[in-house]
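Problem 12. The chain below contains 155 residues. Write out its predicted structure in token notation.
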Amino acid sequence: MSDDIHLTPEGAEALRLELDDLVKIRRPELAQRLREAVADGDLKENANYHDTKEQQAMAEGRIQYLQDILRRAKVVVNDGPSDFIRVGSVVTIQEVGASDDETYTIVGAAEANPREGKLSEKSPIGSALIGRKRGDKIKVNAPDGQISFKVKKVE
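Solution.
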């Protein structure tokens, strides 16, 4: 498994927007709240101060994470139809024994969100799909056991 970081153009843009919001809006808001909490005095028992410091640390951690991802990531452009599944492909699969199809976009791990239909290329199912094509039958060892499914469509 490669340590490469892949993002779709949409995923890269979403992370840039989140970073911009954190740097330009959230960071100054938290700094102002800290100034106000310090002005209230006695920091030992100032819950607002401690809560704001914790939020600030989380925001700074997220900023560093996003900067690192965006600096190292390769933006993968889906440059048209392909028979083979790759990052950026929209894939429709059907689990053996199920009647419903499931459609996912294969994305880099940093933008994965299965509830939104964005499946990481490094997840068990995502990695099993990479390089496959329509009609392929695949077995995947997932956390809940082995899953078998068929690739119905690749866009």
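Discussion. The beta strands are 6-7, 74-75, 90-95, 101-107, 118-120, 137-142, 145-154. Students who got a different answer should revisit the alignment rule from Section 12.3.
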